[in-house]
Amino acid sequence: MLDLDPSAPSGAPFAVGFDLDLTLADTRAGISAVYAALAAETGVPIDTGLVVRRIGPPLEEELAYWFPADEVPAMAARYRAMYADIAVPATVPMPGAVAALDAVRARGGRVVVVSGKNQADTERTVRFLGLRADAVVGGLFGADKGEALREHGAGAYIGDHTGDVDAARAASAVAVAVATGSFDSAALAAYGADVVLPDLLAFPAWLGGFPAA
């Protein structure tokens, strides 16, 4: 876990958690490029369009669609070795991402990024995009994110995946879903999200009615 802004007041009355990929960061081009490089290097055909439509679960789960189980650990290590140089520079903020974090801070809140991406690349991505976060935690997916969210006192968790709804539930936080990933608004609502927004552009208005204490 990285504390990116140790000057943030520890007594802030509330905290909001955010997922990274397809919530705060548009990583589709970068992830596609890394898989294309991996395919070129190994000679294994990989449908990068299909890969980016499934962004969210752990890396090893996606790699298992393309490589035998005994090769997945080595392919994961190779993917991560390439990610910083290939994917991070190709990453851009999702629409409304910066304004969403600013809205939390404007109310005296803390921003906590909790991602399924490994810790090092989560930190690199947040820094590259200039996102102001008080804490960054990587390497967690679904309900496993709940412990980190509870540790930082997150009253809400914003994400694009059904696994992010599970994360919020595990942390007893409000599950705010944004329909910017592989699940549309209807699917996220049906799964049980407390709030469904079209994207982060709608987040500041929603936050205005969120209890800060």
UniProtKB/TrEMBL annotation:
Pfam families the UniProt entry points to: HAD
Matching entries from InterPro entries are given as: HAD-like_hydrolase_sf (IPR050155), HAD-like_sf (IPR036412), HAD_sf (IPR023214), PGP-like_dom2 (IPR023198)
Protein name as annotated? Haloacid dehalogenase-like hydrolase
Q: Which organism is it from?
A: Actinomadura chokoriensis
| The organism's taxonomic lineage, starting at the top | Bacteria, Bacillati, Actinomycetota, Actinomycetes, Streptosporangiales
